[in-house]
Amino acid sequence: MKDSFKDVRCDENSPKWENAVKRQTPIYSRNEIRSEFERDYTRILHCQAYRRLKHKTQVFYAPHNDHVCTRMEHVMHVASVAKTISKYLGLNEQLAEAIALGHDIGHAPFGHHGEDCLNALTEQKDGLNAPKKFWHERNSLFFADFIETLPDPDAIEQPLNLTYAVRDGLICHCGEIDQQGIKPRDEAIDLYSIKRPGIIQPYTWEGCVVKVADKIAYLGRDIEDARQYHILDMSAYRHIREIVATTLNGKESHAFRSGKAVNTTVLINDLIVDFCEQSSPEKGLCFSNEYFRFILELKKFNFAHIYNHWRLKEFANYASNIIATIYRTLMRTYEYARHGRISQALKYYPVLGKTFEEWLIKYARYLPDSTNTNGIPDISAAIRRYQTMRFNTEQVFNLADRESYSKCVIEFISGMTDVFAIQVYEEIISF
Fold this sequence. Notes:
Elements: H1 17-20, H2 36-46, H3 48-51, H4 71-89, H5 93-102, H6 111-121, H7 136-147, E1 149-151, E2 157-159, H8 164-171, H9 205-228, H10 234-247, H11 264-278, H12 289-307, H13 310-331, H14 334-338, H15 342-345, H16 350-363, H17 381-388, H18 402-414, H19 418-429
Antiparallel strand pairs: 1-2
């Protein structure tokens, strides 16, 4: 009920507060009028990975229809839902919003299919406890910690350096696991010790709210977008009515319903109301039995009628080829990259060559070869960029190690938008 979580919110009175607001390094002071979590929100808002979400797949690949949901719109939906729930329950809205806004900054191009493609390209370690290869929740944390930067007051590019509570929410946001009675964990663990998505609960109640908000946000919107593309036929609409009748309209049902329609706004409203009425610190975050059954059945519907639709599968084949082609092309340049000659290897692919060289300079301490084939000094444009770029980033990738180079290529591709990946692919295959 209203304000029922006020005593467990993440604020100065919480025993978790000191860990929650901890940053990896002290952040510069700017006479702030913002809280720690508001500051994280704006740092995510201004980073490049967030900007690229506007051209990353939510469900429908590289949509030309301006009214179909992209990954950016999705995270805004999640932020709206998480803020509404947190405000009503008495939790920290600013923390929930910051986690929600950044939760997908590590998502691959072409949605979950792109994630699967990159996962397949990454070498799996042996052993029962070997970590999962590529998963976007961990990649969101990785991008926040090591890839994304913002200029400080001295115009030096610095890492985002987010608080522990927000970083924790990024890697623990997996909303695909169907659970009732979600509660946060007690320990502030090393976040990189988490080996697979969905197995560790967030550190804060606000992080748990984002997990649920992620699910609430996409269920109805995916149906709405499927209507835009005429993916659903009359039998599908009958199926939706049957789901409502068997889960929410039964004789014993006490489900709250604000209307007869099954669309984005009605679904989000009703799920939020039910969730807020049912949740308590004692029970955890949960829905009523009726709405929980409804969610499970609606997810099954979306998989049967939308996510596994033949049109999406046809584009998925195309997306697989795009990602694999870019990966193979860049892996062929390994020896060139080791010796500072990546521009020579990619000279026929100027868009790919320029962006990948800049990536290597920033994250692999790559220094282009300063001599041409005749042994004459050649101060290339890349070296001039290296001299003028001012950044304080770690050496994330080691060009002397092929496995690390493969990781470097995977992460470079993961940051691409659908549109840019298609552009680079066409550059590679065009003659």
